[in-house]
Every structure is written in C-alpha cells, then in structure tokens.
From TrEMBL, chain A:
The chain crosses the membrane at residues 40-58, 220-245, 257-279, 443-463. Keywords: Membrane, Transmembrane, Transmembrane helix. The keyword Membrane applies. This is Uncharacterized protein.
UniProtKB/TrEMBL annotation, chain B:
Residues 1-22 form the signal peptide. PANTHER family: ABC TRANSPORTER GLUTAMINE-BINDING PROTEIN GLNH (PTHR30085:SF6), AMINO ACID ABC TRANSPORTER PERMEASE (PTHR30085). Belongs to the bacterial solute-binding protein 3 family. InterPro entries: Bact_solute-bind_prot3, SBP_3_CS, Solute-binding_3/MltF_N. Keywords: Signal, Transport. It comes from the Bacteria. Residues 33-254 form the Solute-binding protein family 3/N-terminal domain. Coiled coil: none annotated. One of its GO terms (biological process) is amino acid transport. Pfam families: SBP_bac_3. The keyword Metal-binding does not apply. It comes from Nonomuraea endophytica. This is Glutamate transport system substrate-binding protein. One of its GO terms (cellular component) is extracellular region.
Length: 467, 270
C-alpha cells in the first residue's frame, strides 16, 4: 500500500481516486486532510476488527451447533431408539421362550415373564423418550405413535397366547396349534410392523447426525477461510495505519497500536487454531464415536432378533423354514460368511477366515479373537438344529434354553462392551471440543475489545493535535 | 444471529465457490430429471406398454419416489443382468427392478429401502389339499425353470426332496401344473401372483412365505444423501397409504396376503 505521492504540502498523500476536477470542494478537503485519513484508516481497522469478531462468533456458533446435535441431541436419541428396538424384540423373544417351555422349566418361566414385564416398561419409556426427542419431525412422531398403538395390540395378543398356553398345560416343545395361531399374529405384528419401524427410527437419527455434521463442518471450514482473510486484512490495515501515522507525524511506532496489532493477530490465530481443533473433534466424534456406537446398537438389535428366531424355529414347526431362513439372513447381515443354508454358513464360519462383509466388519478390530464369541454362538446353534431335525425335540429345547442362551449372552455382552468403549471415545471428543470452544470464548472477546480500546488510545492523541 | 450467520456464509460461499467442490460421487439429489432403471419383462412389476411407456408396481413406486425427490422420472429399460451395470456406467441414477438386497451386492451397490418384501411361495391347483408348506413338497413334482434357482432352493437350501421337472419358462410350467405333470410351482410370490391372475382358473397361492427377499432401490455407492432421501420417501409412501394402494392396484386380486402392509426394515445407507 503506497501512500506517498509528490503533491503540495501537509497532506503527504493523495488517494488514487483523488478528484481530477480543478475545484476542490470543502468536503473533499476534509476527507483528504491528515485527520480525515487517520479517521478513515482507523475506521477501516475497526471494521476489520469487527468482522474478525463476527466471523469468530459465527464460526464458533456453527461448531457449537455441530457439537450440540451430535453430542447432546441425536447421539442420545440413537441410544433411546436402539433401546426401543431391543426392548420390543426381547419382549417377543421372552414370549416365544415361555410358550416353548410349556408347563416345564418352572423357575425359568417365571424369570422369562419377569423379563417380559421389564422389557415392556423399558420399551414404553424408550417410546416416550424418542417421542420427546423427535420434537419438530412430524414423520418421525407419526412412526412413534404407530409403534405405540401397535404395542398395545401386541400386548393384547401376547397376553392371550400366554393365557391359552397356561391353560393348555403342555410339555416343552409341544405347543398346541391353538396357542400358535394367536402367537403367529403377535409375532407377525412385532416382526413385520413394530421392529422395522423402531429400527428405521434409529437409522433416521443417524441421518440427522450425518446431515448436521456435513453442514456444520462445511460452514465452519468456510468461516475459517473468512477468518483468515479478515485477519490478513486487519493486519494489513494495522501496518498501513502505523506507517501513515509515522510518516505524517514523524514519529516512531505507536506502542498502543503495536500491542493492539499483536492482540488481534493472536486472537485471530488462536481462533483459527481452535476452530480447526473443534472440526477435528466433530469429525472424530462422528467417525470414531457416533458411527461405531450406531453400528454396535444396530448389531445388538439384529442379534437379539435372530436369537428370537431360534426360539420361533423350535416353537412353530409349520414355519420352521421361514424362521431358519430369517436367522441365516440376519446372521449373514451381521457377520458375512458364504453359504446358501445354515449348515453351509456354519461350515464357512468354522474356517475362521477374515470377516470383511456384514454390519460388524468395520469394527472387527475391536471384537476379540476374530469373532470367537459369535462363532461359539453359531456352533451352539448348529448343535441345537441337529437335535431338532433328528427328532430329539426336548433336547433341542433344552439346548436352546441353556447352551445357546448362554453363548448368545456372551456375544451380546461383548457387543455391549465394545459399544461402551466407543461411547467413551465419543463423550471424550465431544467434551474436548466443548472445552476448546469455551476457552476461545473466554479469551477472544477480551483480546479484541482491548485491541479496539488500544487503537483509540493510539490514535486519539494524534487527532487531538489538529484541534 | 442465525440470519446474520447465514448471510455471512452466503457471502463466503460466493467468494470461495470456485475453490472447493463437493467432491465424491454425484448425488441424485438436486437433479431435475432422474434416470430410473426398470424391468420390461415382468407382468405387474415392470413391462413396456403398447404406446412405448412403462407400467407396473416398480414403475409406479419409481414415479412416486422421483416426485418426492422433486424430479421428473426418465425410465431406462433394464434386464436382470444389467442392473448393476447401468449404475456403474452412469446410464441410470436409480434402479427399481426387483433388485434383491444381498450382502455380496452391497459392496458394489448402495441400497435404499427395501421398499417391498417378497417371499418364495407355492402355487397349487384348487383341489390340492396335501401341500401346505415347503416341507410338503417332498416327493412331489415341481418345475425347474431354466435360469431360475427357485426349484433348487427348495432342494438344496431347504433340503426338501422334491422332484425337479425341467421346463423352459413359467408359461410352460403353468401348463404342466394344469395338466398335472407337476404338482406345484414355486418362486417369488409376486411372480406367482401374476401367473395366477393371468390364468384365472382359481389356482391357489399358499402364502407359505419362506425365503424372504428384500427388494431395494439401487444407487451408486457413496450417494449417502440420495439414499437417505429415498428412505424418507419410502417411509412417506407407507405412511400416506400409497404403498398399500399400489400393491392392491397391481396384485389385489391375486390371493397375496395384504393383511400386513408396513414399512420394511431399511438396510441403512452407510
């Protein structure tokens, strides 16, 4: 920025836009006089400072919004809706178990009924939570309402099946057709209507998080660029003001202005650095935390429902093929191994190869022993099915309720542990981002405010010389 | 504050517009016209009409989805073998062509939906009372249609010892069923429904519902935004009753069980 032009006296500089007209108006004189120029330059510096402040505010606002949605809004919603799926799925699983047990397994039947009641309470609570969190999304609220309605119908049907079951007083694995007829209606309602809706609600929370993440990170990135531009402009204007004051008043540098420059540059650079750090926090909270929490939540949901398919397979021989296929399909969507039927799937799985497809493939590094617990569960499934097809129904039922249930619990517990680990990462990164933003908010307004005061302090004495 | 922020973003976006593109895969979002691959060889699902248009369940669903995405559909005829290719070669943006979602396909195709669940089912003569589910096909004669694996799935997957009678196509199979050369036809329920409707002599669909198949909307891998938007449109289609009315329109008189028409469980877009 060159200012010097060979002209007449005191005002040592003329702008390039200086009037070529022969007559110089009063207004033009005052603008091009020394105080006029000082005022203009000071004004420009203050405007640059204001822009810098505004961009910092907008940038941290966007970053805050991103953290809020991912960390405090949709994150918890995913947990709520995943809880809903699990609660619903397990209700039907417990009913199937009780119907399978008949008049045997006294104590275990009581436990299953208690579990059913507990899950019902959990599902109702999760529905209420999800409804509250879906504030402002009519489609989602409609879905939740229809699940609520359906749950009422389900409870009625399940209650009827359980009553008929008690009255029929049958041996384990020999559930009468009258009971099955009612149970089929109940489980169809659950599997074909309620569970898909609950699952889709969880997916929808994931969609909201992805959108917010993409929008807010793009916004923060853009605002960071703006911040850098404003910083460069402010720096340039500071230098221009300093140089002009030095030349016009034949002084060395103004210390107040120097400090103001330093404060502005530091606040700007810290702002850029903090926004960069928060961007990383958001990306990491999404990728290493949220996405994986969502994956394990979905995996638990599918796991619970395929475990219930094992009970249904034993319970309802007329539909055994349907349930066996459903079990295989869900197993393959969870942990893919080649195989057109359950036996072939088990055989491929037994080869202990690398798992590269299926919902759990992306988190395989965190699953102990190359899915050892899952493989044990599938081996137990093979034994149960072998017993069932060889006609040893009571033994198959006992295998389902003992070995199979235990190996499933072990696998499910592992998923819970993995999910908790991801949740911890998630909470930590969200907190780190929040902390960095708080720090910025404590520092930047003061620094920029002080810079503005210092500019006034540096320029005011010079202007006073013209009074 | 929010308005100011948006204004600031708009200005900055203008300034930096040229410097950074969105990157990645081209999305179906924001297009005026969406090219959609549909079948032309399946009655009730996707066929060419006399005037050169397209008609069927998949075609109507495609129209609905395109409308929800704010675009005009432009149909691209595809056969079963071309479904992945039209996406890869950028000849279609979406594929609705009885495209079953499988784990193996998911590495090459991003699936929205499923928008419909179908099952392998069994069609029998009106007087047949011994066949109630797939197990009852043991020792009975069923068609093995050239190029289709439904018959084999009964024998190999379900391990039911049915006798396979090779035939060139479903039309021949239908004739065999009526002349008692086979005892049942088994394949996808909506294909069976189409056959029964065409025949009109009261053949019975058992609603045995084994081997669930999820029919999804194929998109290019990476178009997560498009996939999520299609999922929302499918949810709407079930919520506003369009799904039920379309199913009834195309398969209403075929004996398919429509007691439960509910939105299917989505695959997820990531």
């Amino acid at each position: 920025m060159t200012i010097v032009q060979p002209t007449t006296s005191p005002p040592p500089a003329q702008s390039q836009t200086a009037v070529p007209a022969p007559v110089v108006t009063q207004h033009a004189v005052s603008r091009h006089s020394v105080p006029g120029r000082v005022r203009t330059l000071t004004g420009a510096v203050l405007i640059a400072l204001a822009m810098l402040s505004a961009l910092l505010a907008f940038g941290s606002g966007s970053a805050r919004e991103g953290l809020r949605v991912i960390g405090h809004d949709s994150g918890p919603q995913v947990v709520a809706t995943a809880g809903l799926y699990l609660g619903l799925s397990d209700m039907d699983a417990q009913v199937a178990d009780v119907l399978l047990m008949g008049s045997e397994y006294g104590e275990r039947r009581t436990t299953a009924m208690t579990q059913y009641e507990k899950r019902r309470t959990e599902a109702n609570q999760a529905l209420l939570d999800a409804f509250e969190l879906a504030d402002g999304d009519p489609a989602e609220r409609l879905t939740i309402q229809s699940v609520l309605d359906g749950l009422g119908r389900y409870e009625r049907l399940a209650g009827e099946a359980l009553l008929l079951n008690t009255q029929s007083d049958h041996r384990a694995g020999e559930t009468p057709e009258a009971v099955l007829r009612v149970y089929r209606q109940a489980t169809d309602l659950m599997r074909l209507e309620l569970l898909p809706k609950a699952y889709n609600l969880t997916l929808e929370s994931g969609t909201i998080v992805r959108r917010t993440h993409d929008e807010e990170t793009a916004a923060v990135r853009l605002l960071m660029l703006g911040l850098i531009a404003a910083l460069v402009a402010a720096g340039g204007l500071f230098v221009a003001l300093q140089l002009y004051l030095a030349r016009a008043f034949r002084r060395r540098l103004a210390p107040a202005l120097l400090v103001a420059t330093g404060l502005t540059v530091i606040a700007g650079l810290v702002g850029v650095a903090v926004l960069g750090q928060v961007l990383q926090s958001i990306a990491s909270a999404k990728r290493d935390g949220f996405d994986s929490v969502l994956t394990t939540a979905r995996a638990r949901a599918i796991g619970n429902s395929l475990h219930a398919d094992q009970a249904r397979y034993l319970l309802d021989p007329a539909r055994a093929d349907t349930y066996e296929h459903a079990f295989l399909d869900k197993s393959q969507s969870l942990v893919y191994a080649d195989g057109g039927n359950v036996e072939a799937y088990h055989a491929t799985l037994a080869k202990n190869g690398r798992i590269s497809l299926g919902l759990l493939a992306p988190v395989r590094a965190n699953i102990a022993g190359n899915f050892a617990a899952y493989r044990r569960f599938q081996e137990a499934d093979g034994r149960m099915r072998a017993l069932a097809t060889s006609g040893a129904k009571p033994q198959a039922v006992s295998a389902k309720l003992d070995e199979l249930a235990k190996s499933f619990t072990a696998f499910d517990r592992e998923l819970v542990t993995v999910g908790e680990r991801y949740e911890a990462t998630f909470t930590k990164t969200v907190a780190a981002g929040d902390g960095a933003l708080d720090g910025l908010w404590r520092l930047a307004p003061w620094a920029l405010g002080a810079a503005a005061v210092l500019i006034a302090a540096g320029v005011w004495p010079r202007l006073r010389e013209y009074r | 504050m929010r308005r100011l922020r948006i204004a600031a973003l708009a200005v900055l976006a203008l300034v930096t517009a040229s410097s950074c593109g969105t990157g990645g895969v081209e999305s179906v979002m924001g297009k005026d016209t969406i090219r959609i691959g549909v079948r032309t060889d399946l009655p009730g699902i996707g066929v060419r009409t006399a005037d050169g248009g397209f008609a069927g369940f998949d075609v109507d669903v495609a129209r609905y989805l395109a409308n929800k995405l704010g675009a005009r559909p432009e149909f691209v005829p595809v056969l079963a073998a071309d479904r992945e290719k039209v996406l890869a070669d950028d000849r279609a943006d979406l594929v609705l062509a009885t495209f079953s979602i499988t784990q193996e396909r998911k590495s090459r195709v991003l699936f929205a939906g499923p928008y419909h669940l179908s099952y392998q089912d069994i069609l029998v003569r009106p007087d047949e009372n011994d066949i109630k589910n797939v197990r009852d096909l043991a020792g009975r004669r069923i068609c093995e249609v050239q190029g289709a694996n439904a018959g084999q799935r009964v024998v190999e997957e379900r391990k039911v010892a049915a006798q396979l009678v090779p035939v060139p196509d479903y039309g021949t199979c239908l004739e065999h069923l009526k002349s008692e050369q086979v005892d049942a036809i088994t394949t996808n329920d909506i294909i069976l429904a189409g056959l029964a409707a065409k025949d009109g002599s009261g053949l019975r669909l058992l609603n045995a519902r084994f081997n669930e198949q999820r029919t999804g909307v194929g998109l290019r891998v990476g178009d997560v935004e498009g996939c999520e938007a299609v999922n929302r449109a499918i949810t709407d289609m079930y919520q506003d009753g369009t799904a039920k009315s379309l199913l009834k329109k195309w398969f209403g008189t075929t004996g398919l069980d429509f007691s439960t028409v509910a939105v299917p469980q989505f695959e997820g877009c990531s």
